[in-house]
Design goal:
about 375 residues; mainly beta; 5 helices; globular
Length: about 375
Amino acid sequence: MKYTLVFVFSILSLIHIIAQKKLPVLRANSSKAIIIEDGTLKTDWNIDPSVKPDIYTVSKIGKESKIVKVKTDVDSVKILIKQGEKKDFVILLKGKDSCYTRIESSLPKDFSKATPAFHDSIRLGINEQNTMFVKTALNKTDSLTLNFDTGTINLSLTKDALKDKIKQPLKPGLNILSIGNKKYQGFRIRQVELSGHGTDGRFGWDLFDGMVVELNYDLGIMVVHSKLPNFVQKDKSYEKLNIKYYDQLFFVETTIQEGTKKNKDWFLFDTGYQRTAMLDEPLLKEQSFPTDQMKIIKKVMMKGGQGNEVPVVTADLQSLSLGKYKLKSIPAQLLSESRLVSNRRMHILGNEILKRFNVFLDFQQNVIYLKPNKLFNDNYIESK
């Protein structure tokens, strides 16, 4: 009875909202629609008049608004949505069925007022292959060495780790990952063929959504904070960069230069990628960036996360800048064919560059603070 009353109240509330506000109407003759985020991220959507409202939740929004396009077989509408906002409209199916639909952004997570405040420090390792790793425990019993991979979400374990190191049955939605003194839940687990050298798998940035993660290579520690430490914003050596989210991954604005030509774009911030930067050559050519002027260092076949082979050319990039900090003569990887991630072409920043900065990843204000560390002037692994 309690749940029935709650459901009835929700329907009445929706009817009241509709009565008070004239909602946009989108026409459709087919029950199949497409929802598009940021111009490229596409989701097939089933128009169902029995669900009131039918809710689509967009991927995380940072400081910028997000444009969402809903497209039916005969009509379309663009919706601008901000963090924590909801937008309602009606899809009129075959001229008779009113399908009440909502596009919403989830309320952001925020641990800044956690009591007591926490600053959980974990020993951080990095090996010769640029794999960053920490010691963890799954369900209190299974010790695992895992890569903190900001280019992914949830938890991925190798086939060998699942076979040889997991002693207890895994329970979907109920597994607990212990990192330092904190415990994390609510993640999914998937099997992968490969992970960073010497690790049993990797975990993504989303475990720390609403928190602040410090990566300090000078001290060899990773610290999970409930709030950004006060000294960071006062220290002028830290450069502040905005985060932009796309399909649950996050990007930072990066500038590359060859000759007199500069190109500014959003790069995936990917500590799980062990090399410098992966550049989408077809995309750069469309933007008139002179990749043909980059001196070729070598050509290799690279293995992807699922064991697939990808042809890669390593070439000398004149410079790459993150805010005011510039790195020069970088052996960057050029992909001759675009690699689509959720229908989007992208460039990637890897840990051979990212390890050269001490970083605060602020998933509350959706910004990154970074400054050069002791590794900043080290030679690149793939030198000329």
